[in-house]
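Hi there, hope your week has been kind to you so far. Thanks so much in advance, here it is.
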Amino acid sequence: MAIILAAGKGKRMKSKLYKVLHPVCGKPMVGHVLDAVQQVQCERSVVIVGHGAEAVQAYLGDRAEYALQSEQLGTGHAIQQAESLLGTEQGTTIIICGDTPLVTPETLENIIANHESQGAAVTILTASMIDPTGYGRIIRGADGSVQKIVEQKEGTPEELAVQEINTGTYCFDNSKLFQALSQITNDNAQQEYYLTDCIKILREQGEMVAAYETFDLAESIGVNDRLALSEAEGFMRARLAKKHMLNGVTIIDPSATYIGADVVIGSDTVLYPGTILNGHTVIGEDCIIGPNTEIEDSTIGNGSTVRQSILSGAEVGAEGNIGPFAYLRPGTKLSDQVKVGDFVELKNVTVGQGSKIPHLSYVGDAVVGSGVNIGCGAITANYDGLNKSITEIGDNVFIGSNSNLIAPVRVGDGAYVVAGSTITQDVEANDMAIARQRQENKSGYAEKIRAKAKAIYEKKK
């Protein structure tokens, strides 16, 4: 079982966005925490919500159960709100803050194993800091068990010299947790109910209080302001980059590459500086991505190249060639070996195998067949001011430069559209469409225009 504390407002963030919903590497902090506890197979996860409860529940959905802390009266009071859900359960319960996105499933597995092997009533996740100022210190006995947690304001000089600190993550025997919670009081300066008082109560009852130290100091970071958020982002970015590189991805400059937490990348893919990969993006093997490319919620097939481009909600098949300076918007689905060149924008379009849209074109709300060549400056005019209509282009079609296809319209297989045409009617298979005014050359007219312009200029002088 797991209880995630996510009820605090986070005033120091100075933000309209609720604290635990601030993203780290593209995912809200509470999402990282819930992922971690669910990867250690917690049968039930309860999120304590308060400020911003509706927003947190909207994000997490049915992945968790919820308990409302309507008044923020301390960490102990927050856990008490879960008693109606978990109070009668037996077993181990993880308690973790929703603003600690760097805690790993491996560490949670280790603290659970340590807790259960020792038969402890509670095990505290700790870390050692060179400068532990501001943190509660872990005071251990000769047998290594925890005697007490001393807060900064209450410690003696000897106690404050201790560098092992309380990270705020715990494993409890569930029944002993709620038994101790029933005994805590708010007899303190803040008049709040503290979870750490349970540790004191259990210790006085002769129960085992253990500690497990993490050697990754980043896991102790609780994000309370934008500075800590930036630090967490840096640690997470480095961790993700290391994971991908160890899995066979080449990252030319990890410090200039941004990879989201849910991104999947195949081996032998190369990421150049300025690459930003976010959302549920999947990059295949043997790809070249970047430089200066942003890809979100998109799929890139094996052996594809994407340079200096933006992709959002797009699918690129194998051996595709995208960019530079292409913009693939949601609904774009490219088959294998498709080329999309410079200053091309695609939206809600399906493109068949081997087709080419090399440069300076807009294709939206369209179905494009295989082996199609769309010339420079061609557009599909898909919107009439009220409705968006579909353009259909068959296989092996040639669309000449600077052509306009006024939807709804269909161009059949093997057809040609001559450069400069504006197509408003269907073109049958293997036909050639010419839709432009006949050229007329007026003898000497250019000289007359220049003379008239010069006269106007002289008059203004």
